[in-house]
Amino acid sequence: MPDLAAFIRARTRPGLVPHCEHTAYTAILSEHQHTTSVPADWLGAAGEKPSATPWGCRTCHQDDGVVLPHGWCKTLQALAAIWAARPDHQQALATPPDTAAGGWYPVPQEDSSGQPA
C-alpha cells in the first residue's frame, strides 16, 4: 500500500494533471517530506503519551532541528483529501512513509520539460 505522499504523487503525475498543477504538487511534496527518523526518547519521554505514529514532517513537525512524531502533516492530509472518497485513502493515511532510500521520502526529479527524469 502506498503511503500518503506516494498516494498524492500517483494522482498528480504528468499527463494526469496540467503541468502547472504537477509542478505545484511536486513543490509542496518537496517542502513537506516526512521521515521516520524521530528521537527514540521522545516516544514516551517526560510524561508524554508515547506516539502511535513514529514519523513526522520535516517542515511542520520540527523543533530545534528534531522531527517530532506527529504523523502526516495537515498540509499533505489536505492535499490527499481531494481523493478522500477513494477506498485506498484511509489506508494511505495509516501507512508510514517509505523511507528506505535514506530517511527522507524521495521526491522524483524532473527534466526541463517537466517529465520524470
Could you explain how this protein is built, in words?
- The strands form two sheets. Strands 1-2 form a two-stranded antiparallel ribbon. Strands 3-4 form a two-stranded antiparallel sheet.
- The chain contains four helices and four strands, in the order H-H-E-E-E-E-H-H.
- The chain is mostly helical and 117 residues long.
- The chain has helices at 4-11, 19-31, 74-80, 89-94; strands at residues 34-35, 56-57, 62-63, 66-67.
- It has a domain at 4-31 and 53-94.
- The longest helix has 13 residues, at 19-31.
- A hairpin with a 2-residue loop joins strand 3 (62-63) and strand 4.
- Mean pLDDT is 76; it is low at 101-108.
- The chain is 29% helix and 7% strand.
- The chain is globular and about 45 Å long.
What is the H-and-E element order?
HHEEEEHH
Question: What is the strand arrangement across the widest sheet?
Answer: 1-2
Compute the number of strand runs: 4
Number of helices: 4
Gyration radius from CA atoms, angstroms: 15 Å
Q: How would you describe the oligomerization state of the chains in this entry?
A: single chain
Give the integer mean of the pLDDT values.
76
Q: Find the structural class using helix and strand composition.
A: mainly alpha
Shape: globular
**Low-confidence sequence ranges:** 101-108
* Cα-to-Cα separation, first versus last residue: 24 Å
* Helicity level: 25-40%
> Per DSSP, what share of the residues sits in E-state strands of 2 or more residues?
5-15%
**Major beta sheet summary:** 2 strands, antiparallel
